[in-house]
DNA sequence: TTTTTTTAATAGTATTACTTTCATTATATT
DNA sequence: AATATAATGAAAGTAATACTATTAAAAAAA
């Protein structure tokens, strides 16, 4: 896993101009991650970002058509990165149970190390996914955006892990529900553990979120 | 359950002036539900609401300090109403397994009948909870608001059902995680089934969401 | 070197989420 | 019925947001 130079490719539906190809573009993306984490998505603006990176609001709009689509870009990047991790860490594993267990770890564990795959800080991005990603799809435009393929990387991850569930138990009726419940649940639990801790049973250093969801999945599909 | 005249009381931390006590107040609340459902929370404004109810923006601000706190009020009302349903439908039931099963139905089922307990349309409110409630607590102000007690009705629901889980299996380590996973999960699945259906395994008229979560819970706590 | 592309600077727009002030209209009290 | 008090409405104002449009300067490509 460590220090591999891999390339995560984001489809052109997410930007006007690919930010990966210019230093301004990379700056926009990497600084926006820091700022969204720090200010929250609502208080983050392209104007503030422009000031911080020594550029102009109007230049940022040449890369992303709105601040909403920048958020969707980041989310898409995140799920592509997760998908890469899933593929990489299960490709030589035959036993589907071990493969599922590994996937569940990746989907539910905390990220506290920035592997610096690129100009993107994965630790902060993970925090953004937890705190802000639900805002991306809870929009009146969701159906239109879904048609444009905005959420396809996320769906791909769910389906991939759902298939492993079916390898273990082909009779199981709800593989996608189970996987999406685990993914969203784990993010919720991490958010709650910081802000509404009585809604969780998280204890410092005990990895309860991962343990809870692994146990839940294997019991449920049996 | 039917047609009972019960009273749901919302704490004063949620409003400047209690909307239940005036006809303008009741109008604000009931029309806001319709408009948030129709427009989405982002496009809903107090100005538009004022126009629709034949009143003025500034008058609405005398009831709620912001549109955000109106949303939190609605969410709090919803959870108080759910808590009432939980209490009412389990109070004469001894077997904790049956009690848990009943609670899980209430927490995961769809609401398609407006019992008109009051000026609040529960069908639309349920839709708002599914589509908008995550925006209420994904704020930078969450900790401050939590201290003020904004989320206590939600927490009470989770803890109440968590206790039933412990009655069935006192050794179970994660009752609150399990219950909050089910609650949030069921809402997610209902949203996904409408907008990103491939993330679910919902089939028309088969009640899969309720079945899935009940099965999951009973297997997990065994 | 010239052309083309990219970026910066500035200004502008409609809207939002409020706040303030003041007049009017109900309601309650005497 | 007269008066005091509280609730509402109308209007104007504010700072900020989420953009768009225009034009000029700088950088890169031909």
Would you write up a description of this structure?
The structure is a homodimer of 222-residue chains. Chain A is mainly α. Chain A is built from ten helices and no strands. Chain A has a domain at 71-221. In chain A, helix 4 packs parallel to helix 8 and helix 5 (96-108) runs antiparallel to helix 8 (152-168). The longest helix of chain A has 24 residues, at 67-90. The radius of gyration of chain A is 18 Å and the shape is globular. The model of chain A has no long low-confidence stretch (mean pLDDT 95).
In short:
Chain A is mainly α and 222 residues long.
Summarize this structure as a short list of keywords or feature phrases.
mainly alpha; homodimer; DNA-binding; 222 residues; 63% helix; globular
Oligomer class: homodimer
Provide the β-strand percentage band of chain A.
Answer: under 5%
Global mean pLDDT of chain A = 95
Spatial gap, N to C terminus of chain A: 31 Å
How many β-strand runs of chain A?
Answer: 0
Cα-based radius of gyration of chain A, to the nearest Å: 18 Å
Instruction: Please report the two chains with the greatest interface, counting residues with C-beta closer than 8 angstroms to the partner's C-beta.
Output: A-B, 49 and 49 residues
- Report the principal-axis shape of chain A: globular
Backbone structural class of chain A: mainly alpha
Order of helices and strands of chain A: HHHHHHHHHH
Helix count, DSSP H or I runs of 4 or more residues of chain A = 10
């Amino acid at each position: 896993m460590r220090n591999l130079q891999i390339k995560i490719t984001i489809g052109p539906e997410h930007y006007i101009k690919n930010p990966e190809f210019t230093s301004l573009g990379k700056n926009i993306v990497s600084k926006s991650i820091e700022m969204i984490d720090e200010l929250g998505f609502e208080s983050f603006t392209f104007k503030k970002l422009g000031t911080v990176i020594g550029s102009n609001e109007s230049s940022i709009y040449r890369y992303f058509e709105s601040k909403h689509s920048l958020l969707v870009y980041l989310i898409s990047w995140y799920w592509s990165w997760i998908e890469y991790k899933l593929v990489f860490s299960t490709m030589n594993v035959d036993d589907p149970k071990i493969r599922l267990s590994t996937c569940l770890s990746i989907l539910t564990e905390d990220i506290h190390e920035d592997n610096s795959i690129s100009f993107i800080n994965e630790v902060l991005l993970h925090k953004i996914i937890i705190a802000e990603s639900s805002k991306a799809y809870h929009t009146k435009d969701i159906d239109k955006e879904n048609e444009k393929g905005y959420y396809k990387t996320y769906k791909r991850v769910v389906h991939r892990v759902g298939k492993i569930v079916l390898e273990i138990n082909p009779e199981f009726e709800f593989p996608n529900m189970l996987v999406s419940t685990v993914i969203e649940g784990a993010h919720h639990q991490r958010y709650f553990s910081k802000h509404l801790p009585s809604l969780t049973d998280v204890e410092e250093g005990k990895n309860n979120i991962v343990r809870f969801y692994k146990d839940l999945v294997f019991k449920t599909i049996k």
